[in-house]
Amino acid sequence: MIKKVFKFQLDPDKKRLLENFLSLSVLQGANYILPLITLPYLVRVLGPEKFGLIAFAQAFIQYFNILTDYGFNLSATREISVYRKDKEKVSEIFSSVMVIKFGLIVISLFILLVLIFAIPKFRKDWPVYFFSFGMVLGNVLFPVWFFQGMERMKYITVLNIIAKGIFTICIFLFIRRMSDYLYVPLINSIGFLVAGGLSLRIIFKDFGIKFMFPSFEAVKHQLKEGWHIFVSTLAISLYTTSNTFILGLFADSMSVGYYAAAEKIIKAIQGLLSPISQTLYPYISKLASESREKALNFIRKLLKIISAIGFIISLLIFYFADFVVNIFLGSQYQQSIIVLRILAFLPFIIGLSNVFGIQTMLTFNLKQAFSEILILAGLLNIVLALILAPLYQHVGISIAVLITEVFVTFSMLVYLERKGIKILEGKVV
């Protein structure tokens, strides 16, 4: 018995898994707790209108983040996790992905400039969108996928805390009145750029990775590997980021502010489950390459834990919605209470879809079906949003999100059952 315990403590795989989980837990805490520190201050100083404008700009800019990410946060993570001991191969993967990303950011900047000068709505507040674009560049410079693939999440944690720390401190120093709203996206971008620059220094110096001009075949391979995940991510944005964007097209900035403020609270709480997913995806992928049965048994255990935690979190959010809004947002945001109650079910539902989709479908190379489900969900959400947002504004868009997430989770489960992957049962087919 003593030998078994001692062996477990020294098992390098399990030790690394625990370290990664703790690192990502601290990371998620920083990612969501630090913004929650500034959220009550920002929403009160800026008011629903300016806060809504910034939320709309961030939702718009997020499309460029999706384009430049191109699914590499999963596809490149998987490849680096497989070849992590081959430094030359890792350097090739790193170089190929970064070349593609810089090409995509040039395209993104061109699109942004065209839209700003061509559309009055964007031209009116062009500095907000331009300053927000710095987050895209910072995101490109910060290769999260590299650290995840190497299973060295502590670097992601430290660098993100630096970025969020800069943002948090500067918000209290420089945002004093409503007219200071332009500094918010600028401060956010500076934090991302600093973290991105530091991450590249660590990769080249500490990991000994060398940049090389990749071959055409290497670039083509990475584009092919990331394609289905990119399409899936884009489809996901049709029922996540696009909701704030669509709402901003049909409603005023006040309604966007009500929805965005409640959504930030949900995402902060929902982020508590993210460390589990991010830590376990490379581990489950590696486990599946060794034994399908072991991977499925592990996924079944994970499903029980995620569903239990998600259900409790959702129940608490629903019950204490009015208290949470009054404490974090203030009296100006009473309209956010109903939004928060509708979105309260998301931690439970999304927790399930994460296990069904990312941990299972992607692990077992069901990328195409994964993409198709999310594309259908995105189209469903767009239809619902276009119908409900003009009629019920922030409440309507919240209902559209909830219905879409239920569709995603149910569709993934049905597909897996039909493929003979019985996640809900204790057997492997």
Topology, number of strands: 0
Q: Helicity level, as a percent range?
A: over 70%
Structural class: mainly alpha
Average pLDDT metric:
84
How many domains, as an integer?
2
SSE run? HHHHHHHHHHHHHHHHHHH
Q: What composes the largest sheet?
A: none
What percent of residues are in strands? under 5%
Shape: globular
The low-confidence runs, each spanning 5 or more residues with pLDDT under 50, are 1-10
End-to-end separation = 33 Å
Number of distinct helices = 19
C-alpha Rg, in Å?
Answer: 21 Å
What would you say about this model in short?
With 429 residues, the protein is mainly alpha-helical. The chain has helices at residues 2-10, 12-69, 72-83, 87-118, 120-124, 126-132, 134-141, 144-149, 153-174, 183-205, 216-237, 241-250, 253-270, 274-290, 292-319, 321-328, 336-343, 346-362, 367-418.
Which short descriptors sum up this protein?
single chain; 0% strand; globular; disordered N terminus
Describe this structure in words.
There is one protein chain. This protein is mainly α and 429 residues long. The protein has two domains: 15-237, no CATH class; 249-429, no CATH class. Helix content is 84%, strand content 0%. It is built from 19 helices and no strands. It has helices spanning 2-10, 12-69, 72-83, 87-118, 120-124, 126-132, 134-141, 144-149, 153-174, 183-205, 216-237, 241-250, 253-270, 274-290, 292-319, 321-328, 336-343, 346-362, 367-418. The longest helix is centred in the N-terminal third of the chain and has 58 residues, at 12-69. It is globular and about 55 Å long.
